[in-house]
Hints:
The protein is built from six helices and five strands, in the order βββββαααααα. The longest helix has 31 residues, at 181-211. Helices cover 44% and strands 22% of the residues.
Amino acid sequence: MTTEWxxxxxxxxxxxxxxxxxIKGEYSVKWEDEQYGIDGEDQYRILQCRGxxxxxxxxxxFFSENDPPHVPDIDHWPTPLLRREPRWVSDARxxxxxxxxxxxxxxxxxxxRLRSLAAVGMRAVFDRSAExxxxxxxxxxxxxxxxxxxxxxxxxxxxxxxxxxxxxxxAAIHRGWHPSEGELKTMIEIMETFVNRNLFIIEAADxxxxxxxxxxxxxxxxxxxxxxx
Length: 229
């Protein structure tokens, strides 16, 4: 006999958000506090993705004080990734273990919603990347940017973006600044663009250039000779 399961929208750790999933198990707890006049319900579900068949856990919580009260708070475990590591992050291990460690820890903080730590990590990634590009780590940020622009590692229009990234990291370290998800997304895109282009794309482009066969030399056309009778 085939069991038919109720389908809900879940956030699969592999396929992402909004994918249909079957409820393989469910348990619900209702509660109320008469003293404060509040109540709610917590639903615990074991889900199986209809796409990749991955099994994961979902919690749906209703609370009378929510605004509006009928909209639940929904959590998933394993915690869905906000952003996957680019492929080149694993390649960083082969060129610099410190950079690889900083990148993986930064993405871990980002995906665990540790926004201030992620912001600090992005600043550290920039500093390490600049050092790998030959910039003296003892220089001030402005001096580092002068060197990067001078050597063509950063464009003049990119300087403002990197300044924003660095200042955000400083604010998280020294002033307890807590960036929003949108601000953190902007920061990680700035970081990825700078690191990927300078440490991975340029090297890959050089290899590509070396593997492309050279254009054969142009043959000179033979001049026609006219024989006199």
